[in-house]
Design a protein that fits this description.
- By secondary structure, the chain is of the alpha/beta class.
- It folds into 3 domains: 97 residues, Aldehyde Dehydrogenase, Chain A, domain 1; 184 residues, Aldehyde Dehydrogenase, Chain A, domain 2 (3-Layer(aba) Sandwich); 182 residues, Aldehyde Dehydrogenase, Chain A, domain 1, CATH 3.40.605.10.
- Helices cover 33% and strands 17% of the residues.
- Strands 7-8-9-6-5-10 form a 6-stranded mixed beta sheet, with helices on both faces. A 5-stranded parallel beta sheet has the order 15-14-13-16-17, with helices on one face. A 3-stranded antiparallel beta sheet has the order 11-12-18, with no helix packed on it.
- β16, α13 and β17 form a beta-alpha-beta unit.
- It is globular, with a radius of gyration of 25 Å.
Length: 492
């Protein structure tokens, strides 16, 4: 419904293709939209299998964009299909993919065990773990791990498994027999590898209503050594446990970041410094300066002044326009219930790969990267368009003459393997299509591409959407947690 609402709000008609396991609730949702006044032709329901109906919709040239929720693997398939064509404006096909997460929670020795256990039960086992934001990996500091796990196992023993129509039921079934088989296969595979596996005993009929007659999977704990042992999200009531020592917190965060999943991260601590450290840890596992509005303004101002000395008035004016709307590093306080502090922040996305056909285009791309606090990585030489050796990108010697303040925020690629987080392109349509295909074929996270035609930036006919070069982060802090602030105890 979120996807449908967003598409409608932007003025688009919608073809709603639900997961093949959930056609009835989808039909009811679309029926309610029609009853509320949305024309039948504007929202149409197309239930069916992903391999047939879903694939046909994605491949159809009449479809102008795709919003998808599901696995990373399917999202990559969709991206590669969409990469075979451009939209009606000659730009890459829009794809918005929400692909779940290897969601972790970090628990240090200052946390209150009772609160940890209560939150873990809700996050890992409510809805039988079938939420994109459900807890998948619990990382507990070694010194308190045994006590917390003992309490958690005891609490799991009290869970009632069965038909969720009953208010007394805590854990319902997984969605179908295929999901059950996948989960049980994972559990048995981990058990065979020697991992400790815990499942609560089935106590009595009142605790397991209808268990034998449905696709139920027992709530499960599996101890592992490191998060990289998990190659994909385990979508169900299965929680993995990692024990860590306090000095290893930094390496633990880097390991979590390297999984490529970035949906949610939980933290149980009463130490403010730990909250700050974990919430600001860069998602790519490397230590980089956190972009702030003030820093972005300083860099872009220095770049504007340098452009003025180069008599590049057009790009300098572009910088001036960007300077009026810099929002990277901004944090907004959101309304919420008493006992919660909710903030929404905009951060730099990371490294922006820039491919330009003209010098003015390259300089405009740098302005966009700096305005959003990002690092600009320029393509160079034959790596720019290997499919067209006759195409020569602009010389990049000008990069070496930029102000010193930009030294660590712009570079020229050393190899095609240099990592990046988004792409800006200026060039002809014939060169854009191969680029889109190459990016879609890359392993790892899906990469967004923004494109403009050659010369469009110089004539102000087109521009990049700066918001798409930012990363959103929301933090919810429980200010009413029992136990007080452990930092006060550390003063002595």
């Amino acid at each position: 419904m979120g996807q449908i609402s967003a598409a409608l709000a932007a003025g688009n008609p919608v073809l709603a293709k639900p997961a093949e396991q959930t056609p009835l609730i989808a039909a009811q949702a679309v029926r309610i939209l029609h009853e509320a006044g949305v024309p039948i032709g504007v929202v149409q329901l197309l239930p069916g299998a992903g391999e047939t109906v879903g694939a046909a919709l994605v491949a159809d040239e009449r479809v102008s964009g795709v919003m998808f929720t599901g696995s990373t693997e399917v999202a990559r398939l969709i991206a590669r299909t969409l990469a075979t064509r451009l939209d009606g404006y000659g730009k890459p096909m829009p794809l918005i993919a929400e692909t779940g997460g290897q969601n972790a929670m970090i628990v240090d020795s200052s946390a209150l065990a009772e609160q940890v256990v209560a939150d873990v039960l809700v996050s890992a086992f409510d809805s039988a773990g079938q939420r994109c934001s459900a807890l998948r990996v619990l990382c507990v500091q070694e010194e308190v791990a045994e006590r917390i796990l003992t309490m958690l196992k005891g609490a799991m023993q009290e869970l009632r498994i069965g038909n969720p129509a009953y208010l007394a039921t805590d854990v319902g079934p997984v969605i179908d027999t295929a999901a059950k088989a996948t989960l049980e296969n994972h559990i048995e595979t981990m058990r065979a590898k020697g991992h400790k596996v815990f499942q609560p005993r089935l106590l009595d009929a009142s605790a397991t209503r209808g268990f034998a007659n449905g696709t139920f999977v027992l709530p499960t704990l599996i101890e592992i050594e490191a998060i990289n042992e998990l190659k994909h999200e385990v979508f169900g009531p299965v929680l993995h446990i990692i024990r860590y020592r306090r000095p290893a917190l930094e390496s633990l965060l880097k390991a979590i970041n390297r999984t490529g999943y970035g949906l949610t991260l939980g933290l149980h601590t009463r130490i403010d410094e730990t909250i700050t450290y974990v919430s600001e840890a860069p998602r790519n596992g490397s230590l980089v300066e956190t972009a702030t509005t003030r820093a972005a303004v300083a860099r872009l101002t220095a770049y504007r002044d340098w452009l003025t000395t180069q008599n590049d008035t057009l790009t300098a004016l572009r910088c001036e326009r960007y300077l009026k709307h810099i929002i990277v590093g901004s944090t907004f306080i959101l309304p919420g219930p008493t006992g919660e502090e909710n903030t929404y922040s905009l951060k730099c996305r990371g490294t922006i790969r820039c491919e330009a056909a003209t010098l003015s285009g390259a300089r405009a791309q740098l302005a966009a990267a700096l305005a959003t606090g990002n690092h600009a990585l320029f393509a160079s030489g034959s790596a720019h368009h290997p499919a067209d050796p006759s195409h020569n990108p602009p010389e990049m010697a000008w990069v070496q003459t930029l102000p010193a303040i930009l030294e660590h925020h712009v570079s020229v690629e050393r190899s095609r393997e240099d990592p990046f987080d988004a792409v800006l392109f200026e060039g002809e349509r014939a060169l854009l299509q191969p680029l889109v295909k190459r990016i879609a074929a890359r392993p790892g996270p899906l990469i967004g591409i923004q494109s403009v035609a050659t010369g469009a930036l110089a004539s102000n006919e087109d521009d990049y959407i700066l918001e798409q070069l930012l990363s959103e982060s929301s933090v919810s802090l429980n200010t009413a947690a029992a136990g007080g602030n452990a930092s006060l105890l550390m003063i002595t």
